[in-house]
Write a structure and sequence with these properties.
By secondary structure, the chain is of the alpha/beta class. The chain folds into 2 domains: about 425 residues, Amino acid/polyamine transporter I, CATH 1.20.1740; about 170 residues, no CATH class. It is built from 27 helices and 11 strands. The strands form 3 sheets. Strands 1, 5, 7, 8, 9, 10 and 11 form a 7-stranded mixed β-sheet that branches. It has a two-stranded antiparallel sheet with strand order 2-3.
């Protein structure tokens, strides 16, 4: 028998698919709030945070494609075929799918696969909401797997440029990579806004530099522009079917930043991201890839490292320094996306409570999660030390993110198909989105070959995250069922109080409860064992809606149940943190009728005991207990001052 102390939180809202009453939340609360701040600063911040991942793909994507082709890689038709594949992959996957379509499928301004899943379930037109919720959860888990490997491959590929400048620097690559990663994760506490403002100018120089290098070599060999025609891609794949899968897996490296781009939507908004992509990032990437191709056409020996060999010898070291700075930013795009995904998962009940720090007073989507930051740091540094080179890491890279991309495509198709029943433009968008999902399937099949060569690691990370989330959700359900048996119906409780009136004591008592239709067991215990009922007793429930943020005007409902008993129901979004004292102060203006500044908060603190083989597997129960024991204290989670908390204990068997 195993016991663990669990600070029982009774204010979490329902997870996806649990409460049909939330199915029209987006309609009930209106449109998304706008991002604050000058547009040019938002665009600069987006450039510094959102596009780092995809912006540094030229460091290794084209080189990896040439390696996958083998000796044929330096032949003109092969070079043009690879360039054509890269160009159309970026155009279709990033420009059309993500920037053109997926960014429009925002959940009141918030992006990412979980936000999209919540949007699909909220609209209520899907036939199998629980299946879609599980699919979105898997997409979230795979995104975590990608988040562990992106910083490692990005930083390694940049610092390996030192070997091109001087082979004697080879020994310094690993330690320098580790130092850079440690510094990157250390500065996360400053927040994505300040980091974006710092990194934005660096990325502006980066894209200008790689675009200029590419344009220079294209001007010398303009025939490379023929690769814009998709005929070269089709001809190459038809001529070399034996290596087509390996080449497509390598080509996919050029678009791996698409999902991070969507996950970071809530940090800066759609308009700045779209503007920066169309005006700067897409043209610069196209110029650089074609410039690398032009260089290899002119000098086949440059296939060894075409990105760095584009630069004149005297500019190589400055380019390595600039590339290192850019890859730090590339890692930031994924890290910021993981933070956003974690916040969503926490509020939707997929993960145990953990500390989330708001890092901006203007943009609510800019957050920092210390525990996740530490785990990502350890995993990323471990990958660098294990794989030791970007070439080996590239073999493991892509399989997890392509799974997330495919899930995003499926959810987008479901969303557009549902909207298309009543909206003609959505029908056209659905007709456009459906073939893009087929492209994702093609990339998934091509990346399967990476699994034996290191691709198993991000998949394993994703599996661990998925099992953890499912175990936490199931454990919460089992515990909640046990707790509800100790709750009382309001009518029955009031009848008992009328028959045996408890002693009335002055002051205000607040009891948190997840069920707005019953009296929580903490109040039942207080009356039964202490024999007292406060002059003002408030039953406080916090409901998490399937929208990112709930406007102030519609998030509170105050009801007087009895002369001494009040109920306050607060609605928050899955990107918000519920500050209970602040919500109660707002309730005073909505009819609560008394001040809550000196209220006492009663929280349940129960021992969770593994006593039955039913409900969950024993190993999952033990995992749940570990997470429950290490979860953030409920009082801190709800912003309640510790000196105003009284805990009432008990025991719950699972």
């Amino acid at each position: 028998m195993t016991e663990a102390s669990e600070e029982t939180e009774e204010g979490l809202g329902a997870a996806l698919g649990e409460d049909a009453a939330q199915s029209r939340a987006s309609e009930r609360y209106g449109s998304a709030p706008a991002h604050h701040g000058p547009f040019y600063l938002l665009a600069l911040g987006a450039l510094g945070v959102v596009f780092g991942d995809i912006g540094t793909s030229p460091l290794y994507a084209f080189k990896t494609c040439l390696t996958a082709v083998g000796p044929l890689g330096t032949q003109p038709l092969a070079v043009l075929g690879i360039l054509s594949l890269i160009f159309w992959a970026i155009t279709l996957i990033v420009t059309v799918k993500y920037v053109g379509l997926v960014l429009r499928a925002d959940n009141r301004g918030e992006g990412g696969v979980l936000a999209l899943t919540a949007l699909v379930v909220t609209e209520g037109r899907a036939r199998h909401p629980k299946l879609l919720a599980a699919l979105g959860l898997a997409g979230c888990a795979f995104f975590y797997g990608d988040g562990t490997i992106t910083p490692a491959v990005s930083v390694l590929s940049a610092i390996e440029g030192l070997e091109v400048a001087n082979p004697d620097f080879a020994r310094a690559v690993l330690p320098l990579s580790v130092i850079v990663l440690l510094v990157l994760f250390a500065v996360q506490r400053r927040g994505t806004g300040s980091i974006g403002n710092l990194f934005g100018p660096v990325m502006l120089v980066w894209f200008a530099a790689i675009g200029a290098l590419g344009a220079w070599h294209i001007a010398e060999h303009p025939e490379v522009l023929q690769a814009i025609s998709p005929a070269y891609a089709a001809f190459f794949l038809a001529q070399h079917p034996g290596i087509a899968s390996a080449v497509l897996a390598a080509v996919f490296l050029a678009v791996t930043g698409g999902e991070a781009l969507y996950a970071d939507l809530g940090h800066f908004g759609r308009a700045p991201i779209q503007l920066v992509w169309y005006a700067l990032v897409w043209p610069a990437l196209t110029l650089n890839y074609f410039g690398q191709g032009a260089l290899v056409l002119a000098d086949p020996a440059a296939a060894e490292n075409p990105f760095y060999l584009m630069a004149p010898p005297q500019m190589l070291i400055p380019l390595v320094v600039l590339a290192t700075a850019a890859t730090i930013i590339a890692s930031q795009a994924v890290i910021s996306g993981v933070f956003s995904m974690t916040q969503q998962a926490l509020q939707l009940g997929f993960l145990p409570r953990m500390k989330v720090s708001q890092t901006s007073d203007q943009a609510i989507g800019q957050i920092y999660v210390p525990a996740v930051n530490a785990i990502l740091c350890a995993a990323t540094v471990g990958l660098v030390l294990y794989f030791e080179s970007s070439d080996r890491l590239a073999n493991a890279y892509g399989i997890a993110v392509v799974c997330t991309m495919l899930i995003t495509s499926l959810l987008l198709d479901v969303l557009l198909a549902g909207r298309g029943q009543t909206d003609r433009p959505s029908r056209w968008l659905f007709a456009l989105a459906l073939p893009l999902g087929i492209i994702d399937v093609t990339f998934l099949l091509s990346n399967i070959e990476k699994i034996p060569h290191g691709g198993i690691f991000p998949l394993f990370c994703g599996l661990v995250v998925y099992v953890t989330m499912r175990s936490w959700m199931r454990g919460r359900t089992v515990v909640a069922e046990q707790m509800r048996r100790q709750e009382r119906a309001v009518k029955s409780f009031l009848e008992d109080v009328a028959r045996q009136p408890p002693q009335q004591v002055p002051g205000t008592a607040v009891f948190l409860t997840s069920n707005s239709g019953t009296v929580p067991r903490t109040l039942v215990r207080n009356v039964r064992y202490n024999g007292v009922l406060h002059e003002h007793t408030v039953l406080m429930s916090v409901v998490t809606e399937r929208i990112p943020r709930v406007p102030r005007g519609g998030r509170l409902k105050v009801t007087r149940i009895a002369p001494q008993l009040w109920r306050v129901e607060a609605h928050v979004g899955f990107m918000e943190r519920a500050n209970v004292p602040k919500l109660l102060r707002e309730s005073e203006r909505l009819g609560l009728g008394f001040r809550t500044d000196n209220a006492t908060y009663f929280l349940g603190r129960d021992d969770i005991v593994v006593a039955s083989p039913r409900g969950m597997a024993r190993w999952r129960k033990r995992l749940f207990l570990i997470m429950a024991r290490n979860a953030e204290f409920a009082g801190a989670h709800f912003g309640i001052p510790p000196e105003r908390i009284i805990e009432l204990g008990g025991q719950v068997q699972i």
